[in-house]
């Protein structure tokens, strides 16, 4: 088993060096992109070379599409294809690093457990990374849905007070301009920047809806674009009805988050319960033995 680990270690390390020299320069530009959470950029070029040679993107298009869709939501549409390659290369880099670590453990200890653990972690860690990214996307969508009803209420009040739709939205955005970390207001700030840059209200609002990529935001955008020229009571009533629906969805999300938080507390409570049993039961057993 030690000999197998040595052979695998030589193949993994030597293969990375060779591939880095052959095709590494081609993907240097991809590694220069800034993307949150990427830490192994130096290991990525050979992994991308393997991706291209094996034509994995054309063989598993649905897998790569889902990753790119999530990256677009979290990082925007600009350079989303390159960021997808970078993220997949990062996953492959972690797998390579774990396999190398498993081989080193097997060589050092002379036990096959190191290689088995390294191989298992090389499969599980990329799956965990995809799950983590999916969780971030779901949290982002929920954050948008949680804030959208309040935004609607403010717009309805401002329009009812005689403000135009465009100015009402801009005023709401200006009040929250410091909240650049919130996904909804981050996209709304980009929308106002598009308006200042010469885009029409309709075009900038449609781009805002595409960037959010949330069904409720698309309904909100369609409602506004269909009614903002009319204004008056019809527009206010349409937004009020939509706001009522969104408040119900906000309540459902709040209940779901509460249930998730309570379920996360079950394991710590079980551990504490077991510790209490041990602390209380150990003296009793010791007294019975005496």
Automatic annotation (TrEMBL):
PANTHER family: INTEGRAL MEMBRANE PROTEIN-RELATED, PILUS ASSEMBLE PROTEIN. It comes from the Bacteria. GO terms for cellular component: plasma membrane. It holds the Pfam family T2SSF. InterPro entries: T2SS_GspF_dom. The keyword Protein transport does not apply. Signal peptide: none annotated. Residues 152-283 form the Type II secretion system protein GspF domain. It is found in: Cell membrane. Keywords: Cell membrane, Membrane, Transmembrane, Transmembrane helix. It is a multi-pass membrane protein. This is Type II secretion system protein GspF domain-containing protein. It comes from Paenibacillus albilobatus. The chain crosses the membrane at residues 85-107, 113-130, 265-286.
């Amino acid at each position: 088993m030690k000999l197998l680990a040595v052979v695998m270690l030589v193949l993994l390390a030597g293969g990375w060096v060779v591939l880095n020299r052959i095709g590494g320069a081609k993907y240097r530009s991809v590694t220069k992109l800034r993307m949150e959470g990427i830490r192994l950029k130096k290991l990525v070029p050979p992994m991308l070379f393997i991706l291209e040679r094996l034509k994995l993107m054309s063989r598993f298009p649905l897998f790569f599409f889902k990753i790119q869709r999530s990256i677009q939501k979290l990082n925007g549409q600009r350079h989303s294809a390159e960021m997808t390659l970078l993220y997949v290369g990062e996953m492959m880099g972690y797998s390579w690093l774990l396999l190398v670590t498993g081989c080193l453990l097997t060589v050092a200890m002379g036990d096959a457990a190191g290689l088995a653990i390294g191989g298992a972690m090389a499969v599980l860690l990329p799956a965990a990374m995809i799950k983590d990214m999916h969780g971030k996307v779901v949290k982002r969508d929920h954050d948008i849905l949680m804030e959208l009803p309040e935004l609607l209420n403010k717009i309805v009040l401002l329009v009812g007070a005689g403000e135009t739709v465009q100015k009402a939205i801009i005023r709401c955005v200006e009040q929250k301009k410091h909240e650049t970390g919130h996904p909804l207001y981050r996209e709304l700030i980009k929308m106002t920047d598009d308006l200042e840059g010469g885009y029409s209200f309709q075009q900038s609002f449609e781009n805002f809806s595409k960037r959010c990529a949330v069904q409720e935001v698309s309904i909100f955008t369609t409602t506004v674009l269909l009614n903002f020229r009319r204004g008056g009571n019809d527009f206010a009533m349409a937004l009020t009805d939509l706001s009522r629906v969104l408040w119900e969805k906000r309540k459902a999300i709040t209940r779901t988050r509460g249930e998730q938080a309570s379920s996360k507390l079950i394991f710590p409570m079980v551990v504490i319960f077991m510790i209490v049993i041990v602390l209380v039961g150990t003296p009793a057993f010791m007294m019975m033995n005496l």
